[in-house]
Amino acid sequence: LDSPLFSDLPGDIDISFEFFPPKTEKMAQTLQESVATLQPLGPRFVSVTYGAGGTTRERTHAEVVRVQNETRIPAAAHLTCVNATKDEVNAVARHYWESGIRHIVALRGDAPDGGAYSPHPGGYANAVELIAGLKQVADFEISVAAYPEVHPDSPDAQTDIDNLKAKFDAGADRAITQFFFDPECFFRFRDEAAAAGIDAEIVPGVMPVMSFAAVQRMSGLCGTSIPSWMEGLFDGLDERPAARQLVSATIAAELCRKLYAGGVRQFHFYTLNRAELSYAICHMLGKRPVGVAT
Ligand code: FAD
After folding, report:
1. Residue 107 beta carbon below 6 angstroms from any ligand 1 atom
2. I want to staple 101 with a disulfide (CB 3.0 to 4.6 A). Which of 5, 9, 96, 126 is the partner?
3. Whose CA is nearest to atom 12 of ligand 1?
4. pLDDT, tens digit, for every residue of 251-273?
């Protein structure tokens, strides 16, 4: 791709940030500081994840409502089908609506023990069913998950795309992708989605690497491939966090720059509750605090 230089990027992009609910006071403090750092960049929304098996139901709710009330940034709640009946999931959704939350990231979720997924008796079987159910509860804005490298449970790429199409047909507004490191993989997926008649937003999920070992572990679980050059770049940096951060920011910014060159104007950042890497990448993409001239 004939990529523009960083100096040419005007910041004409929409950004959103993902957080997870904090477990301790100290983590809550870090999260608040991170949200405060990223808020001036004017994200169109932030989202808060839902722990495996619904284990963070109350904490996710508390955090989503707190962030939206304190920052006025529209906040989205992740919600899964795991370990809950339809009535229970609907009650959680209704509570969100009553608390002023209008955006749900609707997911199937995974089996809490890491084994094969099976639906809860009386629960929603998958994301498509969940979306349809949520739309019955209220007119939520709905984001869903998409997989440029194919979901591990999917028999093939076409089934995965058909499933994504079904999520849009059930009422989803946009898809956010699993993280990936090869821009070509995203472009291929975007083309396949378009060929299947999907014309809604597909937003790349960008994962700045905090810990290479953790990313390797997560990639193994979700089917993301790690290019061999990346392993080489992180080699020898385990004890050098500052150098590692610089390398991480460069890799993620380079990925975003190529995505931008390919026409992408929306980016979703997996912040892991830390602001600096995501801030630096947005900055390199031309984003400046709202109201401040570039
Ligand atoms: P679905 O779209 O329902 O299905 C997953 C796959 O199974 C599909 O791709 C499809 O190929 C196959 N499949 C489903 N139904 C059928 C069918 N009827 N026939 C054939 N194949 C079928 N997990 C959490 O626990 N909490 C979170 O907060 C969370 N946030 C996430 C945010 C994003 C942006 C992403 C990308 C993932 C997130 N996840 C989260 C992980 C997600 O829960 C898992 O990836 C899960 O395994 C699949 O969820 P889904 O909504 O994509 O499932």
Report:
1. yes
2. 96
3. 154
4. 999 999 999 999 999 999 999 99
